[in-house]
């Protein structure tokens, strides 16, 4: 992995609770709240100064802008929800560019697992544990936060275990 263990170790404790939170809110209300997106971005703004060399820290804002523009285009084309697009943009600075292929593979695996798990729960007695969740009643729509949240958290955890040494 290209991410440093130093960066992953700094980012994970702050990002992981937000990842869990957006998983829950997307399941419950089919929304990724703006305050969660802003908080994740604020984590990067503050913790990134400690976790990354300054020049790399500045370049990561380009990742944010590129992801935001792509997400806006996909939202306009009705290919994804606005909350998903904003969350992806806020996640982008946490990902080392050298890990993009790995990250996309990880996202693909998480997406399949989340989709299958959600559909199994939706049509099983597990649904009775939270019968009022919107994600059960939205037809073919899927709470993408259920896959996006763990993708970032697992990527950062893998970065701690397998990342590059150094700062």
Automatic annotation (TrEMBL):
Q: Could you confirm whether the keyword Membrane appears in this record?
A: yes
Per the UniProt record, the lineage of the source organism begins with: Bacteria, Pseudomonadati, Pseudomonadota, Alphaproteobacteria, Rhodobacterales
Which segments cross the bilayer?
7-24, 36-54, 61-80, 100-121, 142-162
Asked if the Swiss-Prot or TrEMBL record annotates the protein with the keyword Cell inner membrane, the reply is no
Which species?
Sagittula salina
| Enzyme Commission no | 3.4.23.43
Record's Gene Ontology CC terms?
membrane
Q: Which UniProt keywords apply?
A: Hydrolase, Membrane, Transmembrane, Transmembrane helix
Protein name in UniProt: Prepilin peptidase
Q: Which GO terms describe its molecular function?
A: aspartic-type endopeptidase activity
Q: Where is the Prepilin type IV endopeptidase peptidase domain?
A: 16-115
Q: Which InterPro entries match?
A: Prepilin_IV_endopep_pep (IPR000045)
């Amino acid at each position: 992995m290209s991410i440093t263990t130093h960066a992953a170790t700094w980012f994970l404790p702050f990002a992981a609770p937000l990842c869990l939170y957006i998983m829950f809110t997307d399941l419950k209300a089919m929304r990724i709240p703006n305050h969660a997106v802003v908080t994740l971005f604020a984590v990067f703004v503050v913790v990134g100064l400690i976790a990354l060399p300054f020049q790399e820290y500045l370049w990561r804002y380009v990742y944010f802008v590129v992801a935001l523009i792509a997400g806006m285009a996909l939202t306009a084309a009705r290919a994804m929800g606005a909350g998903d697009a904003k969350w992806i943009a806020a996640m982008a600075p946490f990902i080392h560019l050298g890990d993009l292929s790995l990250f996309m593979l990880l996202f693909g695996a998480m997406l399949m697992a989340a989709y299958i798990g959600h559909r199994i729960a939706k049509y099983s007695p597990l649904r009775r544990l939270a019968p009022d969740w919107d994600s059960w009643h939205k037809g073919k729509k899927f709470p993408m936060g259920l896959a996006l949240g763990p993708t970032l958290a697992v990527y950062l955890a893998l970065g701690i275990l397998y990342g590059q040494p150094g700062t």
